Here is the input.
Amino acid sequence: MTTILQISDTHILPEGPLVSNVLDTASSLEKLIIRINQLRVKHNDIECILVSGDISEDGSSDSYQRFKSIMSLLELPVYVIPGNHDARENMREAFMAENIFTKTGPLNWHKKIGHINLIGLDTLVEGQGGGYLMPESLEYLEKTLNNIKSEPTMLALHHPPFETGIQFMDSIGLENTNEFKNIISNFTGELRVVCGHIHCMMVANLNNHIAISSPSPCSSFEYDTRSSAPVGFINEVDGCLLHRWNNGFKSVRIGPLVGSGPFPF
Ligand SMILES: [Fe+2]
Here is the structure.
């Protein structure tokens, strides 16, 4: 059995300003960390935290240090991939000690966690919201999946490799989704694709593999598929996803704790 907890889109800023003058994202993440620590009484086998991009709001070194100091309260290994708000070199420097990043090039990595092969892919194109997998990242993915053969695999990338229906988010989606899908369609093992970016949980089918997006602890996007949908976020806090492999993957959304119980039937 292997359990990995996924957090996404923490959007941390250095101390002081709020995101869009509205969101205190550090405080939202701190609340989620308290929630996760309570959860660990029930799931004491969480092996690591995966953070699926937009760790920082502004890509600054100070924001990564602040993120790391909040996450250190969990005392668990933390593995990250970049999102469109991140800055590749600042991120590489901040997380070099985790030994997953190469010294140059895209921030792609592969690490065996218990029974699961965890792969992180870099879709960041600095200066733009949309994502793209560089040819060397696609090559890395193909090679890594070939080496893994058919072992259980979790593959993380920030931008959802599927159309979400939220049009202003799809306009900054993953540009080369088809190339990505072609590569994973050849993989014969169990594959769970996980992503972030859209600040809500959505499940999609990718050539018969399941893809899931994670909610964000700091804000959400309403599921409004009209072309006239107002562009912006809702200041609604959400939680994270717990992925558990025990002869098969199960993924559970862990929302903020509301309500009380359990009450006997
Ligand atoms: Fe994003």
User: Anything to note?
Assistant: The chain has six helices and eleven strands. The radius of gyration is 17 Å. The longest helix spans residues 25-39. Residues 2-254 form a domain with the Purple Acid Phosphatase; chain A, domain 2 fold (CATH 3.60.21.10).
